[in-house]
Amino acid sequence: MAVVAKFEIHYTQFLDPHGKAVAPLPAFARNAQILAGLYRWMVLMRTYDAKAIALQRTGQIGTFSSLLGKEAVDAGIGSAMAQDDVLLMTYRENGVQLMRGVTMKELFLYWGGDERGNDFSEAAGDFPICITIAAHATHAVGVACAMKLRRERRVAVCALGDGATSKGDFYEAINAAGVWKLPLVFVVTNNHWAISVPREKQSAAQTLAQKAIAAGFEGLQVDGNDVIAVRHAMEQALAKARSGGGPTLIEAVTYRLADHTTADDATRYRSPDVVAEAWKHEPILRLRAYLMACGEWDKAQEDALLKECNEQVQAAAQAYLDTPPPTAEQMFDHLYATLPAALQKQRAAALGDE
Amino acid sequence: MAQITLVEAINLALAREMERDPGVVVLGQDVGVDGGVFRATLGLIGRFGPERVIDTPLAEALIAGMTIGMAVEGLKPVAEIQFSGFAYTVIDQIINHAGRMRHRTRGRLTCPMVLRTPCGAGIHAPEHHSESPEAMFAHIPGIRVIYPSSPRRAYGLLLAAIRDPDPVVFLEPTRLYRLFKEEVVDNGEALALDACFTLREGSDITLVTWGPMVPETLAAADELAEQGVSAEVVDVATLKPLDMETILASVARTGRCVVITEAARTCSYASEIAANLAGEGLLTLLAPVQRVTGYDVVVPFARLEHQYIPGKARIVTAAKKALAFS
What we know:
CATH architecture of the largest domain in chain A: 3-Layer(aba) Sandwich
Structural class of chain A: alpha/beta
Order of helices and strands of chain A: EHHEHHHEHEEEHHEHEHHHH
CATH class of the largest domain in chain A: Alpha Beta
Oligomer: heterodimer
Largest sheet of chain B: 7 strands, mixed
Helix content of chain A: 40-55%
CATH superfamily of the largest domain in chain B: Thiamin diphosphate (ThDP)-binding fold, Pyr/PP domains
Shape of chain A: globular
Strand content of chain A: 5-15%
Strand content of chain B: 15-25%
Number of strands of chain A: 8
Structural class of chain B: alpha/beta
């Protein structure tokens, strides 16, 4: 009997949970300014996240899905992408969106139930948040096809969760991306939970990264709590995609430290002990420990950063709260390039003109 | 001038628009080398190359989803879903994404795409190949639904669909693909996407239909004419948005109306038109609106399909019932 195929999945980690370097750092990570910059973003994301939950708890936005625990994944993606790349994401990538220039006010508007939050002032080619799981993986194939057809050096980045890798849309998308060798990077955030269903009940595959092997391209795993590992993998995958090397699937292994959304109560299905253990691996702690051990961060800087982040988040929340509510005609605006005659009567009725 | 079939007219429009606009790409299962299972894309790969005429993997959700991605990214994709029964899978993408991309991004992103699929029964096809899903698509906000019934209208409407800035579901009647030929001038002229076609003028009754039922309806009008009844025939080729004004104006003149579709009756598009007539044209009606539709049953296998599809006799009977009412 002959072996006709075999594969390996590599796992990359540079910083352990204590902030100790366990492997030689890639070039960017030897620049303390860059690492401090990533750290600042991650703290800003967490501050934003806490504010969003507070706004939800006080009835000022709707259901919100927290990114708590995946700050390193978002910072790794966001710092590696070029501005004219296209991001296609789920509802848990607000951190990447912030790094791409989507404003907190826009994000609060979105979660507050206002379509204007999707009218990004920056990153205007990025897709809106995809709520229907993995549908955007097929959109990413189309985006990458267009880029390839036009011989551009841009890349589509599709961010998904572990649950999404069970969907047909995901398999259909990775399959096509492999066939056409598309400039497309799939980043699967494996946070171990799809609402209440744990990772081991999603798939019997040993890793989610290996699903890429079946589609004919490279899959790899990184420590999703280590921003250096995520960014390094992203940089390599993006460079490969830009130079015609085709797609990559990065499985970033992390842990969902929050409930699925503010409408969820995770204590119904998982033990607080497990979550407490996961907190020991969280991404901000280890980067701070590393920076402090290197003498590149101190308490004064930390205090100043927290103050700065809080001010920024408060100002954005206020700007959101000060935004006049949408009016009824906005239901009809932008439905078509030109509102069909058949809908003009309904619009008039909605406005009370009829 | 060339006399061509409906499927040849589709091919002609695709080629014309691919020639005119380098952003137009065609994709789907077997659309490349094979030219499509109905040959609607015949020869395109030779003229425009495999980058613009894309044979996809066998995955309908992928086809619909990547079409959306291409459209948002600035191309003008025209996707083919091979058979109507396989189009149900893509309704998710059309409802959740294509139809609301412009709306949910406040116009920041748009989705100028066409999704073509052959529809209707009557060609002795296998299961799942004879569906009439027009009402399902017409229920979706933010899209257009087109269902032509002649080579000329197919040509002009497909050009318009490709040029339209919003998503268009373009349904093609398989049993009319090669039923008759018509002269089509390949002049690149598009037809309006929001107007019914009055195919025959009449004064006693209005017959409203679209897609594959148009020839049967015209035949019914002929038979009625032999019996001294002047029937007007309105083709609602542009199902959504609906040009109700043309139908209301016709019924205002005739006072009687039969709406014909081969789709199952309940919640069919005939029901929508009948409801609009009741709501906006009641005082012009001299008789209850008749619906001639498929039965509320699963489209039967090939041996019974001609007993399912409403034929000329059922249309004539319904018209007589409307005419007899007083």
